[in-house]
Amino acid sequence: RFGLWGLPDDLKSLFQFAYDKGVRIHSNSWGGGDAGAYDNQCRQVDQFVWDHKDLCLLFAAGNDGSDTDGDGKINPGSVSSPGTSKNCITVGACENNRADFNSQTYGRWWPQDFPAAPVKADPMANNPDQIVAFSSRGPTLDGRCKPDVVAPGTFVLSTRSTQLASNNFAWAAFPASSKYFHMGGTSMATPLTAGAVGLVREFLRKKKGIASPTAALLKATLVAGATRLSGQAPTTGSVCDNNQGFGRVNLDAVLSPVAPVRAKFTEVTPGLATGASWSQTIKVTASGSGLRIVLAYSDFPGSNLVNNLNLIVTSPTGKRFVGNQRTSGAAALDTRNNVEVVQENAAAAGDWNVRVVGSSIPKGPQDFAIVALGRVQ
To answer: What is the bridge-based pairing of β-strands 25-28 and 56-60?
Structure first.
């Protein structure tokens, strides 16, 4: 019933126009196509970021989450293109916190999509720690984790066009002014996240002296600060899942952490070839504190991971952690995702070795970004 008109066949012209005007953060609340698929639009997105490493593209994950089989659980695999790209930031939605709308439930609005408890009677904006039921889920068809992060996406207060019909108030009117109304969807969560990325970029430029932060560094910073939402079974203890990605956007956690916690930001270019490695020693100043290390890179376009970097972190006591694994000592390296996280909630004091290995780089060299967050020097 609906269509988005005016998109060029080659998205390069869309992005190039903005890039030539100085744009370095590009927010996109549109998408569609086959669930989980890596299509030609995804290839164009990844190609443009590969060629323009400092352009950060954001895409909405989609609003196709549903429980059509009636088992009370949201079905996986609904995220759609271009949100299935590797080099963008894909944004899902968590709930807002607006008690005025507690009577508005998922089952009341979409009875066919949410026919069973507990989702059916669940208010849509009463729990910021809950993923919105309709927020599209991963994984992609090639097994990558999506979305990357989530942000509020229900009953978000937004500007209202003066060209709308007088009786059109979207999700809900805003009584204080007809210039605003409430909207929802991952299309609302995405521009909120784009604004957050703008603050990240400003911070890196003005506070850290990084004149032109790469899209990989912006993504790594956003992921480093993300707050894991509790109670999102079956993912307790994991660093990433296909409901919330790496968690809800939280800029304070990484841009203004409570001392003595601090963040370290590193970009490595021209990067690694196959078999090469890079390492950095990070000193943790006190035992028992959390340590979070994020690797992100913009991969060569392709329906699977083309250039595979792996994050390997070794503690002062010799414990070995690898990216996107729940526990230390895990042997399996991540061969699917171009964002990897090591999280240790009770890090030992001393020197930690952070190593990035070019496991397979057919289209290298592959540059990357590292963000470390904790009681680090």
So the answer is: parallel
CB 159 within 8 A of CB 135: no
φ, ψ for residue 120 (rounded to 5)? -55, -50
| Rounded mean pLDDT, 334-358 | 97
Residue 330 and residue 233 in contact, taking contact as beta carbons nearer than 8 Å:
no
Dist CA 292 CA 281 (whole Å):
14
pLDDT of 232 strictly over 60: no
SS3 of 33-59 = CCCCCCCHHHHHHHHHHHHCCCCEEEE
Q: State residue 251 phi and psi, 5-degree precision.
A: -70, -35
Cα–Cα dist 75/114, whole Å:
11
Question: CA–CA separation, 264 vs 374, rounded Å?
Answer: 9
Name the residue among 369, 348, 134 with its Cα closest to residue 272.
Answer: 369
Mean pLDDT of the chain: 95
pLDDT above 90 (res 5): no
Please give the structure tokens belonging to residue 377.
């020097």
For residue 118, report the phi and psi dihedrals to the nearest 5 degrees: -90, -5
Decide if pLDDT at 328 tops 80.
no
pLDDT at 1 over 50: no
Q: What does the angle CA 299 – CA 198 – CA 180 come to, to the nearest 5 degrees?
A: 120
Q: What is the pLDDT of residue 332?
A: 87
Among the listed residues 295, 316, 130, the one whose alpha carbon sits nearest the alpha carbon of residue 217: 295
Closest CA to 250 of 228, 220, 225, 230: 225
The 3-state DSSP class for residue 253 equals: helix
- Alpha-carbon distance 261 to 375, whole Å? 4
**Cβ(137)–Cβ(79) below 8 Å:** yes
pLDDT class of 230 with cuts at 50, 70, 90: confident
